């Protein structure tokens, strides 16, 4: 399709070339080369790039504010332990954007894009993000989880490179990625149990008054984590390796608006508390449930008291309007202009998500129950799923369309909710809306990820870029920029260990599940192995990631696990050197 640049009539070339089909909901190539006059082509390209940015924002919002809360509800409903929940359901939410981007790329037979994204994202996080954290706040790294995660990551990267080098992935290979992740789960859980047993056995006897009473000085700082005898240096691992992205992303809103009041539309704060409630408490009074004090102690449980009427009665209409408003109006005055602009940009996608995805939030007033909205969602959520998956034309019993059956069932459920619930309190079956929200949010994530992959094909054709370079740059940056902002924000607030740990556990999860799940699905669906294309960029990707990981182990060990600014600067420079070499290889200079 890249030959379209040499065609006299680009529109005619596009219409007659099957390889130019992007496979998305919107036909971006047709929009640029057929719908828009030639003199406005650059304007159309700019619009597509802006829309790509909007899709990335929508993907992050869907995963963080809608999928993650539903996963917390599911884990609580199933009474899963913290460790099991952390490395299963919540791990899925943690890597959802990357996993579904990989699935979308695999379905569109763009395996080079998938590999470029997974390796490129890992390189970006382990170099730029990790380096920025170290530069921002040098600290002592936790030895055991640090070594464990990097060793597993090196093994996973080597296994992936072998599959690309030999050019084929069978069902046994794809399942092997999932098995390796299961082994990682086993090691995490066992090591955590051993650590807790050792910690309890060797915990020093501290007077009870020192445990229950924090310092009398209001300005006093908590003791350094590194030197505490009970081992808080493993503090981030207390919630499971894959939970850090949850708490980090939720902390952004707190860091930006320290005086904000939670609203029923905000779904961030529940994650931090959901994680910390089930973690063993440390003996240091500066820690609560195994975690440092909240980043902002002023954030309180959701209250709608500010919207009370003059006689003290809260109207259902006001509650409904607050729920469906795509902009957090309570936090709006405290936000800076850049974040206000982002809120306005993402308002359309947030509005659609609010209407179609139920959210159960235990940290919000009435667990985020809003009777009118939930009744509407009984109708919109199932219908959205049916139409988004393209199943509206499916006929049941050769007489009735599937969408008709779903609509009738949805209306019945809506009437049941209407007659069995009240506006004042949530019903006993409210948690079931969390399961509905899970299905709807998964479909949204898949839909947005597929559209991003489709739009990236258009970008690649326009700028003559390969799928590999698109994956290791645009898609990797889009999926990782949230981690960069949130991890660095947490490190600057005094929690660098939590940030650095996520720089290895997160990409490891994305690599194993981002290949294991999509490839297994596609191999089972197609009945034959997947063929991979080995390129020079593949060698560069694997070599760079391995060099970064091994040099990190050697350097940090030599520094006695004391991360210093000079090494952080070296990591960042390594990324830009890698990026320069990748561009040189892509352009064919060497």
From TrEMBL:
GO terms for biological process: intracellular calcium ion homeostasis. GO terms for cellular component: membrane. It comes from the Eukaryota. Its main location: membrane. Pfam families: Na_Ca_ex. GO terms for molecular function: calcium:sodium antiporter activity. Residues 209-236 are annotated as: Disordered. It is a multi-pass membrane protein. InterPro entries: CaCA_antiporter, NaCa_Exmemb, NCX_ion-bd_dom_sf. It is found in: Membrane. Keywords: Antiport, Calcium, Calcium transport, Ion transport, Membrane, Transmembrane, Transmembrane helix, Transport. The chain crosses the membrane at residues 40-61, 113-134, 146-165, 171-195, 373-390, 402-420, 432-449, 469-490, 502-521, 541-559, 566-585. Residues 50-189, 434-583 form the Sodium/calcium exchanger membrane region domain. This is Sodium/potassium/calcium exchanger 6. It comes from Parasteatoda tepidariorum (Common house spider).
């Amino acid at each position: 399709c890249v030959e379209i640049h040499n065609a006299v009539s680009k529109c005619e070339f596009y219409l007659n070339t099957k390889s130019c089909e992007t496979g998305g909901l919107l036909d971006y190539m047709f929009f640029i080369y057929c719908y828009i006059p030639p003199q406005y082509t650059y304007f159309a390209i700019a619009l597509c790039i802006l829309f790509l940015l909007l899709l990335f924002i929508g993907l992050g919002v869907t995963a963080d504010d809608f999928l993650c809360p539903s996963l917390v509800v599911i884990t609580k409903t199933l009474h899963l332990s913290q460790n099991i929940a952390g490395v299963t359901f919540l791990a899925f939410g943690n890597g959802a954007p990357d996993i579904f981007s990989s699935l979308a790329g695999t379905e569109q037979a763009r395996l080079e894009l998938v590999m470029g994204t997974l390796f490129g994202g890992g390189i970006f996080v382990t170099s730029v993000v990790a380096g920025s954290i170290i530069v921002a706040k040098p600290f002592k790294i936790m030895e055991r989880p640090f070594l464990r995660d990097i060793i597993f990551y090196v093994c996973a990267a080597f296994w992936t490179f072998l599959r690309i080098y030999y050019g084929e992935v069978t069902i046994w290979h794809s399942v092997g990625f999932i098995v390796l992740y299961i082994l990682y789960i086993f090691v995490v859980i066992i090591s955590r149990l051993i650590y807790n047993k050792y910690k309890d056995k060797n915990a020093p006897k501290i007077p009870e008054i020192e445990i229950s009473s924090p310092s009398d000085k209001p300005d006093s700082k908590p003791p350094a984590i590194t030197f505490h005898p009970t081992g808080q240096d493993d503090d981030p691992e207390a919630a499971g390796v894959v939970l850090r992205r949850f708490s980090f992303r939720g902390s952004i809103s707190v860091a930006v608006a320290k005086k904000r009041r939670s609203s029923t539309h905000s779904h961030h704060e529940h994650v931090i508390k959901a994680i910390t409630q089930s973690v063993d408490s440390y003996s240091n009074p500066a820690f609560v449930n195994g975690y440092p004090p909240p980043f902002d102690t002023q954030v309180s449980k959701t209250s709608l008291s500010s919207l009370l009427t003059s006689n003290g009665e809260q109207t259902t209409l006001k509650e409904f309007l607050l729920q469906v408003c795509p902009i957090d109006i309570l936090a709006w005055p405290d936000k800076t202009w850049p974040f206000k602009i982002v809120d306005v940009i993402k308002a359309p996608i947030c509005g659609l998500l609010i209407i179609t995805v139920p959210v159960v939030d235990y940290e919000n007033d009435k667990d985020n129950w809003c009777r009118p909205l939930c009744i509407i969602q009984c109708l919109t959520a199932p219908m959205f799923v049916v139409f988004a998956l393209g199943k509206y034309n499916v006929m049941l019993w050769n007489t009735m369309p599937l969408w008709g059956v779903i609509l009738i069932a949805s209306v019945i459920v809506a009437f049941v909710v209407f007659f069995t619930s009240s506006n004042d309190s949530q019903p006993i079956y409210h948690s079931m809306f969390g399961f509905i929200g899970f299905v709807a949010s998964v479909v949204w994530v898949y839909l947005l990820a597929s559209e991003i992959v489709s739009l990236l094909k258009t970008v690649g054709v326009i700028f003559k870029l390969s799928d590999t370079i698109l994956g290791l740059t645009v898609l990797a940056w889009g999926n990782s920029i949230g981690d960069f902002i949130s991890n660095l924000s947490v490190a600057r607030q005094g929690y660098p260990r939590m940030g650095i740990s996520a720089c290895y556990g997160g990409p490891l999860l994305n690599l194993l599940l981002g290949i294991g799940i999509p490839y297994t699905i596609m191999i089972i669906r197609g009945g034959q192995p997947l063929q991979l294309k080995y390129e020079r960029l593949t060698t560069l990707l694997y070599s760079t990631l391995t060099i970064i990981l091994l040099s990190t182990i050697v350097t940090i060990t030599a520094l006695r696990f004391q991360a210093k600014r000079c090494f952080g600067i070296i990591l960042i420079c390594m990324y830009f050197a890698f990026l320069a070499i990748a561009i040189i290889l892509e352009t064919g200079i060497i």
